[in-house]
Amino acid sequence: MSQVRVGIINVTGYAGVELARLLYRHPEVKLISVTGRSAAGQRLAEVFPHLAEIDITITPELDEVDVAFSAMPHKASAEVILPLAERGIKVVDISADFRLKDASKYPEWYDFAHPAPDLLQKAVYGLPEFHRSEIAKASLVANPGCYPTGALLALAPAVKKGLVHPDIIVDAKSGVSGAGRTLSLSTHYTEAVDNVRAYSLHGHRHLPEIIQELETLNPSFSFSVTFLPHLMPTSRGILSSCYARLNDGKLANEKVRELYRDYYKGEPFVRVVDSPPETKQTWGSNLCLIYPTVDHRTGRLIAISCLDNLVKGAAGQAIQNMNIMFSFPETAGLEALPIYP
Amino acid sequence: MSQVRVGIINVTGYAGVELARLLYRHPEVKLISVTGRSAAGQRLAEVFPHLAEIDITITPELDEVDVAFSAMPHKASAEVILPLAERGIKVVDISADFRLKDASKYPEWYDFAHPAPDLLQKAVYGLPEFHRSEIAKASLVANPGCYPTGALLALAPAVKKGLVHPDIIVDAKSGVSGAGRTLSLSTHYTEAVDNVRAYSLHGHRHLPEIIQELETLNPSFSFSVTFLPHLMPTSRGILSSCYARLNDGKLANEKVRELYRDYYKGEPFVRVVDSPPETKQTWGSNLCLIYPTVDHRTGRLIAISCLDNLVKGAAGQAIQNMNIMFSFPETAGLEALPIYP
Amino acid sequence: MSQVRVGIINVTGYAGVELARLLYRHPEVKLISVTGRSAAGQRLAEVFPHLAEIDITITPELDEVDVAFSAMPHKASAEVILPLAERGIKVVDISADFRLKDASKYPEWYDFAHPAPDLLQKAVYGLPEFHRSEIAKASLVANPGCYPTGALLALAPAVKKGLVHPDIIVDAKSGVSGAGRTLSLSTHYTEAVDNVRAYSLHGHRHLPEIIQELETLNPSFSFSVTFLPHLMPTSRGILSSCYARLNDGKLANEKVRELYRDYYKGEPFVRVVDSPPETKQTWGSNLCLIYPTVDHRTGRLIAISCLDNLVKGAAGQAIQNMNIMFSFPETAGLEALPIYP
Amino acid sequence: MSQVRVGIINVTGYAGVELARLLYRHPEVKLISVTGRSAAGQRLAEVFPHLAEIDITITPELDEVDVAFSAMPHKASAEVILPLAERGIKVVDISADFRLKDASKYPEWYDFAHPAPDLLQKAVYGLPEFHRSEIAKASLVANPGCYPTGALLALAPAVKKGLVHPDIIVDAKSGVSGAGRTLSLSTHYTEAVDNVRAYSLHGHRHLPEIIQELETLNPSFSFSVTFLPHLMPTSRGILSSCYARLNDGKLANEKVRELYRDYYKGEPFVRVVDSPPETKQTWGSNLCLIYPTVDHRTGRLIAISCLDNLVKGAAGQAIQNMNIMFSFPETAGLEALPIYP
């Protein structure tokens, strides 16, 4: 049987290049096309020497593929996806362009009017742990943001089961690769190293996505979420510390952990752990580690999650989505263990 | 006039060595004695080559001094301080041994019964922005913990003026030097680099100190505080992100900033800033940068502070306390600007 | 056909744990036994949470295996290997105990008399690019040191073909994981971060190994080698800068590169590159990148190599050796591309 | 007596901002003017929050000053300095524009014809340890490059006394701040972190400067120098490892250290140390630490130096030069001890 042909649109960002790394070793697919504007005409290995083994040239346009991953920036992504969708090509979109069900949020959060509200309705939010069966049937999957993936997986069991008040704080710490490969002063080495800062204090774009999915999980609540992202000096990794008041402030730690384990039973990439996880324990892998615990002094749930923002937070999850869409084993191409230290 | 003679007990930890660095250049004092158990007999420069200029030998016991800084671990610190206090020598204690007014907290949080409850009552909690006039008259000052310094300064104006509910979350991120110079696997380079983790999820020792001082600030409340520290890969720096519900969720950002500015007017080391601060902006200095803002979507105050945990969080604040105790200019020896980048 | 049973002696160091990571996914073998003294009785996942997927308990003694990897420290390694060798079990030794053909070097460089000079003669130095056919027939392979691997691969073509004087400088820069998982002040995070230092200025233990293999390559010379290692703040990676005077100082860069390419033709893990390589381009992979160039002003060859000290410099190369010993495809279990960034 | 008025041309690079930090606390001068093209009109504190205490606005042109520091890029620096020199204003030039005595080197190394060969002859190479008395009389001082400062100080005693062959290798490792504040992919955080690479393999611009000064030190030789710089992941620091064959390969280590100590006797910022130095031991200070040793196996001198590239390698040395030019105490404004860890 012939392998599924895959392509990457905009391979030159960190999500794109991570897709290339992972897809090249994927047993069920063949990476046949990668695009990139400024680097068009160059061999992939010239731009990314670590991928020297992949013998492919960056082109301005995508070749004929069975499935495309778009790693374009928002707005531009929708533009390249529309014609693909019309031709019936399956797409996983790493950008935010098909994540928010309510098209009216786009002008507010992303400064553009959504060009295809109908298609938006057909797209599926690609968090497999929430929407696996819909993803299986979808033609267009909106891959979640890196922060929402961490926050939602940390909160889901508690929210779904109504254990907590809908008043939630997500304090997230991300490595610098989350800011992408585009140069900026705040991601200049000497500025970012030995440094920690909060940013987007007046509302990060990942907030509406978090709220949308929390409300889908538990429609009986209206959620009040404060989401504050921080930049920390590592290249990869997001640790999300989530806080919410418990209805039962005396809930035992073992109980909450058991409940989380039960919720994620059978999930190949979510692991509820017995001690506080570290971002480095997920380096290069598609894992999300979750540690829920109760602050009995205050009656609050503290749920911590760790993941690699370029894998479970981007390229790896996109491949997991493709695996589901094509009925491949869900872990295909994603079996590598984390690299530590 | 002769200079005040100062000594450092246990110079071989990071707080101790930072005291040595700063005191050596202090215009009003002379560093005449430094102690250290394992390193006794060695010259300070052998243990710390960056201090080669300081011509002093580490001794097992303190020489005759006018003021002593104790950088001993808790419990051991009280033991060395008691005889000094009896002899009327002024002391600034970097350890936690004289911070908690309620002696009964020591068995619970520090695993020992306090050996001198009377002296504990006379000691002053050395956060100059809270207790300057008492410090001026004190013989024994309990230098605050690094985390409490950041959290309390970030929260004080809002708490004092009753702007927020007494239900507070402090999510703090600290550099690794906060864990000291004692070896441990979690502070081994290859384990700590590229990594972020939360720790002390079931109660960090700095929590009772934070609550005690919040209740001193505003005795009309009983505070429910969740304090979660994180280890991040920098050597210095603490960023504290504090969250609390505002009584008036529509309070303007300018208003809250103005109120904070007003509160800290004249403070030499607290700076209320107009944009989110970064830990690196305080590197090597005694500054605490504070940025209060309102999350209007949820009606929450977000107050962020940054400081250098070895300076304003330890040695620098200790010297600031000494300056107040001896009526030196409060900034003496602490004028250096932060080093950036 | 049943899989080959493998065991790791002393899994708790960085080489050991990296072996576990790689062997677990190796298609031809089954990891059935891992030992460790202090951690005996614990599950591997307790000590190394990133390996949670590997369901194995650390034992004090090795179970029955077909091939064993020893990641013991020197001297102790020989002691555990002797009985295995007697029983005919194949062994790859990560330690230095079987690397130096001249047994008399052990007292000088490693402070012990070699316990089995006969076995030492039968052991093969496991640099596949030098000794592939002997490795294929060997029962005991001495896996090269991380530094020698980088230095020898960078120098081999020039030395073998007699292009350079036998007067060589190797200035090597290693990440901190090379110093292992044992705690020490110089590998304490706050001491090692933001820092670079040279060490072993009076002779590093990897020097005799480098000289031995250079002389094996080209016995017509007696080599004078200055080898200076440096510690740099990364967890993984060694960059070796090698300098030697060329007989023909006008040799064209293209020519020397061509000659290197020719020399390493067909090598699965050595890549002669067209621009200066970076350690990060090998992160997590078994690659060694080499860039030879001529300093025409002085007539010197500069040959630079990069590798991941825990993979090609330790565990990966050990597996490559096992693959050769068992006639597996040489790249089995080592196909993963480097992780970047 | 009124303070000397100083100005900084192009304050917005790392050398410029470090000058501002140090000059602000200098007891003999007053920083009255700072220029910067893109940031003109902004307050210094807006661009550099750590300098919030300095109340000064960035202007497009320099005000009337007694001494100017130019931190402009090469070529542009000469252009702004020429009119200042004509008006008799003393200048310390951080750029390379007045370092090379042979004007014909500029087209070769810096791609421009020198605009003022006469002035070039009057300029003094500002390495105080080499040219103190000429600096004292100079109107224009060419501040040395960061790499040449480290290499020359490490080599000077041996070269001056003719101990070594004039065939030298300098393998230098620099932190990323040496590459400046201008954005580039190789200094993007995620590319530079966890990474080491060599660069400028076909000749770095600091090479002619190194050779010029070695030949000035010992005109009886013609030097053959291979200089290879490496980028390492720290913000500050240069460690230079210098190698040269000794005439007497049996020279005792104590002897060579004594000879170095003797050579640098009385130098306020050069310290010959007894154990290998670390870059971090100079963080934020104007020190250069030097460790000479003999590789008795090969008869080579290994001389290692460490400095902070932004202080002794740029701004600090520039101030040291100004101090000499104005007969201030040479250490004025440069007394701060290194910050560690």
How would the blueprint of this fold be written?
The structure is a homotetramer of 341-residue chains.
Chain A: E1 4-9, H1 14-24, E2 29-35, H2 44-47, E3 58-59, E4 67-70, H3 76-86, E5 90-93, H4 105-110, H5 117-122, E6 124-125, H6 128-137, E7 140-142, H7 146-160, E8 164-174, H8 189-192, E9 197-198, H9 207-217, E10 224-231, E11 238-246, H10 253-263, E12 270-272, E13 288-295, E14 300-307, H11 311-325
Parallel strand pairs in A: 1-2, 1-4, 2-3, 4-5, 5-7, 6-7, 8-10, 12-13
Antiparallel strand pairs in A: 8-11, 9-10, 11-14, 13-14
Q: Which residues of chain A sit in consecutive blocks of at least 5 with pLDDT less than 50?
A: none
* Global outline of chain A: globular
Strand content of chain A: 15-25%
What is the third-level CATH name, the topology of the largest domain in chain A? Dihydrodipicolinate Reductase, domain 2
Computed over alpha carbons, the radius of gyration of chain A is 19 Å
Indicate the CATH architecture of the largest domain in chain A.
Answer: 2-Layer Sandwich
Distance between the termini of chain A: 39 Å
Strand order of the largest sheet of chain A: 3-2-1-4-5-7-6
User: Mind telling me the CATH class of the largest domain in chain A?
Assistant: Alpha Beta
Secondary structure tally: strands of chain A: 14
**Largest β-sheet summary of chain A:** 7 strands, parallel
- Estimate nothing, just give the exact number of structural domains of chain A: 2
Question: Which assembly state applies to the chains in this document?
Answer: homotetramer
Task: Give the number of helices of chain A.
Answer: 11
CATH superfamily of the largest domain in chain A: Dihydrodipicolinate Reductase, domain 2
The secondary-structure element order of chain A is EHEHEEHEHHEHEHEHEHEEHEEEH
